[in-house]
Every structure is written in structure tokens, then in C-alpha cells.
Write a structure and sequence with these properties.
Layout lengths: L6 H5 L11 H12 L5 H20 L4 H13 L3 H14 L4 H14 L6 H13 L4 H13 L3 H12 L7 H28 L7 E8 L10 E8 L8 E6 L5 E6 L15 E8 L12 E4 L3 E2 L6 E6 L1 E2 L2
Helix pairs in contact: 2-3, 3-4, 4-5, 5-6, 6-7, 7-8, 8-9, 9-10
Pfam families: Ig_CycH, TPR_CcmH_CycH
Protein name: C-type cytochrome biogenesis protein CcmI
Keywords: Cytochrome c-type biogenesis, Repeat, TPR repeat
Length: 316
Amino acid sequence: MLLIGSLAATWSIYDDIGAAEDENVAVLLNQIASLEAQTPRMVELNQELIQAVEGRVQKRPDNIYYWVILAQAAIADNDFFVASQYFGSALEMAPQDSQLLAQYAEILFLLDGSKFTQRVGIAVGKAFAANPDNQIVLGLKGIEAFTNADFQLAVTYWQGAQAQLNPDSNIFQGLQVGIDRAREFIKDDFGSHNNETQLNEVQIALQINLSLDVKVPTKPGQRVFIAAVRESGPPMPLAAKKILASQLPRTLVLTEKDAILPGQDLTTETKIRVVARLSISGSATPQSGDWEATSERIDLDEHEGEIILVIDRQRP
């Protein structure tokens, strides 16, 4: 969800350079903006621009526009650390600039492996306070809400970002993918809540205390599949649910209402196991590299109490 534009586009949100001694930088920017595609000439002009800005920023460190140009160039080179330093220098000159705050928050998010670390959360909060309608900020707030399993809020933020975009743009389409995933989880959660409020109507309810071992790495949006399966026989689950890894640890309940196929549910078997799997691909089909936990054999005729599972074993 990288919402950062080209150097020329970034420049356009600020005032003109102004100073006569910076005319060369302005000329280079105009030449770059006039080119329609990535050509050898554009590469050459970009290099000239960066060299010119690197020289001028040493003499004019108070010029935030130069820091932004250098930051964007670093992003183009996938050097997020250097980009964060350049944005930080720009913010020292203009600490309340909402666009700078948004771009700084985004680059920290990328630098920290697309995770909402403490410093990312603080940066996003500052940017949101400065301008709650900023497209970049709304995209980040949507990711934060999704990571925290607040799927409806994620949809709201992402739709706000979409309202500022061309529906044919890649960014708009990327946001739509996120919105569709969030709505899928909203639907799943609605069914889950309904099941839990109807436990007095079910014959079998397995209460599962599920957590991840601290050694298990996770990514935002990564899914965990929980299933009750036969001790032996066909692998099709008798009951199954899926949640986000970010929702763990938590306690959930499997009942016969969570069946996958009609006529094959928890009431049709007596000996089962419960399997929880963190998927690295998002697929419900087990794959090499997934992380799992499997319970001991459970006799449904005698079982009482909570099933405790800790996902800590990686599939070969």
C-alpha cells in the first residue's frame, strides 16, 4: 500500500523553490515532469537532480523541499532507512506539515517490516491528528485497524482513502483487496458470534485456548485455521474456523454448527483431535513452512474442560 508518488508529483504539493540560485533544480524538475515514461534521459536527469539537491541542501538545510526530494530518491532505491532520515530532517524544519508527517509514518512502517511497532503507531497518530483526511494516513489507519482485528473500522478508513483516488489506479485496487478481506472476516466473526450466543442449542462445544509461541513469526493479516478432525479417516474437518494471528491469544469455541459438510460434524464422531495452523500463504490447505499445534486424542463422550493449544511446531 505504498502511497508515495513521483519526485515531480511530490514537489507539486509544495510552493515554488523561489531562490534564483536554485533555478537549476527547478529546471531539472520541470524537465523530468515533461517526460512521459522511464527513459535513459529521465534516468540521467534524475541523477543530475539528486546531485544538485545534495549540493544545495548542505547550504540550505532549512529547505524542506530538498529533503523531500532526497527522501523520494532513497525510496526509489528501496533505502527506507535513509529516506526516514531525510523525512526526519524535513520535519525538523516543518514539524506540523501534515503531508510530511504522513510520509514519515509510512516510511517508518516500511522500515519496520510493515508492522505497527510502537514508533510507527506514534507517527501515524501524529499524522492523523494533523490531517485525518490524508490519503496516506487513512491507508495506514486501515492497516492498523485490520491488524487489531477491527475489520469494520479498517473498511471505513480504506474507503476514505479510496474516495481520493482514481478507481482504475493500482492503489485503489490494492485498497479494494484489503476491503474485501476485511469484509470476509466481518462475515466470519458475525457467524462466530451467533454460534457462541447459541451454545445452549448445540450438543457439543469444544472450548479452545489458543496462543502462539513467542518464537513464531507473524505478518499483518496472516490467518490461523482451527479444525476438529477425526482421529483417523478422511481429513475433512468436522468443524472449522479461521481467525487472524493478531487476534491471539484468545479462547474460541467449536460446535457442530461449524461443520464444513452436511452430515459430517462433531455429533457424528466420538474420537477426534483439534489442529490449529498458522498459514504462511493464507491457504486452508496445509503447506511446508506452516506452524501448527495438535491436541491429544479427545473422546467426545468423556471430554470436559478447556483444550489448550500453543502453535509452536513448523511443518517440514
